[in-house]
Write a structure and sequence with these properties.
Blueprint (H helix, E strand, L loop, with lengths): L4 H10 L4 E5 L2 E5 L4 H21 L2 E4 L5 E2 L5 E2 L3 E5 L17 E5 L6 H13 L4 E6 L4 E5 L6 E4 L3 E3 L8 E3 L10
Parallel strand pairs: 7-8
Antiparallel strand pairs: 1-2, 3-6, 4-5, 6-7, 8-9, 9-10, 11-12
Length: about 180
């Protein structure tokens, strides 16, 4: 039996403290990401948001923001960006569109293949850029339709000229700081 967005809403109302996604008619309970993974996602969102907000370029959200995608899935990337002209006002519930940018940060329990599938799902429904941040390997994979995967590591800078002309993120700044 395939479940619907209505089923997801009903389940979410019964279990409001759980992060849920609807993927191909199945409701998936999202586990916590792990401390370091969330710290990386927060740093990515912080740097992106600090650049986007003063310029009023769009909206940056974290993992609790859900998207009702055109393929009937409801998904929540770790970090997302939607251009201002596509989402003039924040919806109270899920956004009925695919974000322009979505970022997934690999947690210790994540499968790389499933995470890459999630990114591809977003690209298939209209997301322009999908990013996989892998703290274990200290690399960033950048996905765009009809382009080879771009792999960045410490010493490299991430730029997204098609979405955010002028924005630069040093890959080495994503990783958690180690205190002496």
């Amino acid at each position: 039996m395939l479940l619907t967005r209505q089923d997801l809403q009903e389940m979410q109302s019964v279990y409001p403290d759980y992060r849920l996604e609807l993927v191909d008619g199945e409701i998936i309970v999202m586990s916590p990401s792990g401390y370091a993974s969330d710290e990386v996602a927060t740093e990515f969102a912080r740097q992106l948001g600090n650049w986007v907000k003063p310029k009023k370029l769009g909206r940056v959200t974290a993992s609790s923001a859900g998207f009702n995608l055109p393929d009937s899935n409801t998904r929540s990337p770790d970090v997302s960006f939607v251009k201002a002209e596509r989402l003039k006002q924040s919806p109270r519930s899920f956004a009925d569109l695919a974000p322009d940018l979505m970022v997934e940060v690999k947690s210790p329990t994540d499968s790389l293949s499933k995470t890459r599938e999630k990114i591809q799902n977003f690209l298939n429904v209209g997301t322009q850029v999908g990013i996989l941040v892998n703290p274990d390997e200290r690399i960033v994979e950048v996905y765009r339709n009809n382009y080879p995967v771009q792999v960045l590591q410490d010493g490299d800078s991430l730029t997204l000229p098609e979405l955010l002309p002028g924005w630069t993120l040093l890959v080495s700044e994503l990783w958690p700081v180690e205190f002496d």
